[in-house]
Structures are given as C-alpha cells and as structure tokens.
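INFO batch 0412 | record 1 of 1 | parsing
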Amino acid sequence: MHGSMLSSPGRVSRALVHGADWLPTLVTAAGGEIREIVEEDMDGVDQWQLLARGSGESKSRMLRYNIE
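INFO prediction complete | emitting tokens
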C-alpha cells in the first residue's frame, strides 16, 4: 500500500490478511461505514488500523480458501 494516510511507509507487515479483507478495509480507508455493507454476507474483516497505523493484531483468525 502507498499513500499519505499511512503512518509508517515502507513498513512490512507479516500479519494474516486475506483478499476478502480488502473490501471492508478500503471502505474504512475511504471514510465509509462498514455497516452500510451487509456484514452477514461479508467474509472479510476491516484491517485498516493494522495496515495504516501498524497498531494491533490482525483481526483474521483463519485463512479462507476454496478446494474444488
């Protein structure tokens, strides 16, 4: 990620972040409310504080994957 909203650019995070987390994370980054999205239908979690500020732990507790 790149932008002026990041507190420490160039930082590498090894936290668990899944592709499904991008929708709620980017909604928060843009100033939106996750409640506007039906949370029951959303697999991802908001990781904005983790990625932008480097604070806290990942909200993801498991990795989602498909096996066909």
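INFO post-check: The chain has a mean pLDDT of 78.
INFO record closed
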